[in-house]
Amino acid sequence: MKTIKENLDKIKTQIDETATSCDRRPEGVQLIAVSKKKSVKIIQEAIDAGAKHFGENYIQEAVEKIEIIADDTITWHFIGHLQSNKAKFAVKHFEYIHTVDKFKLAKEINKQAKKINKVQKILLQINIGEELTKSGARIDNAIDLVKQIHGFENLSLQGLMCMPPYFTEPEKARTYFQQLVQIREKILEQNFDNITMEHLSMGMSNDFKVAIEEGSTMVRVGTSIFGNR
Ligand SMILES: *Cc1c(COP(=O)(O)O)cnc(C)c1O
What we know:
Elements: H1 4-21, E1 30-34, H2 40-48, E2 53-56, H3 59-69, E3 75-78, H4 87-93, E4 96-100, H5 103-115, E5 120-126, H6 142-149, E6 155-162, H7 174-189, E7 199-201, H8 208-213, E8 218-221, H9 223-226
Parallel strand pairs: 1-2, 1-8, 2-3, 3-4, 4-5, 5-6, 6-7
Helix pairs in contact: 4-5
Bound molecules: pyridoxal-5'-phosphate.
Residues 34, 36, 57, 79, 163, 204-206, 220-224 line the site of pyridoxal-5'-phosphate (PLP).
């Protein structure tokens, strides 16, 4: 079995090579190590191997681990489904929340961020495959949702996130990544104030190379770093 360091180094090399091969700067792609269900010890091993950005899915598990690790050089990304009544914990501990998909949730995050004087960075999760089993805003609701939330002073809308249907053949995910890029363009055409939409959070262990080719700025990789969950 390979060590976490070997896995991380390999993925970083693959990110660099893929970015370079499509004339993108490797620094323009942030690797997020997805550590859900992994212990503090294992996360610490990844930190020692140089990982700086981590993604977590379950709020209670995440808060416990973040408080034990207590390392303010680490950037935490919330990438799981978030219920409004847990928003305050996500706001307290996470620099980015990737999974905002409803007005109600955005409103609550704004409220909780205001309480602690924070401007919370968020991404809108789009249900790009229109799958009943997945969270995310509907594609045709995306612009309306941006319209509703772009005035919130304690939110900073940083971009879009998606999780396409799972394919063993990563090439099949390409069309979904392209659709997310198009939604981003449609939002930018509306010229909302204070919205840069610089990030596209797309690509996981299986398909991050294709996602980078299509413009991903944040790849969320779990299994290829930490092994099976
Ligand atoms: C678990 C998870 C990942 C990581 O998936 P792997 O296939 O293990 O790389 C990425 N994004 C989200 C939203 C996840 O829940």
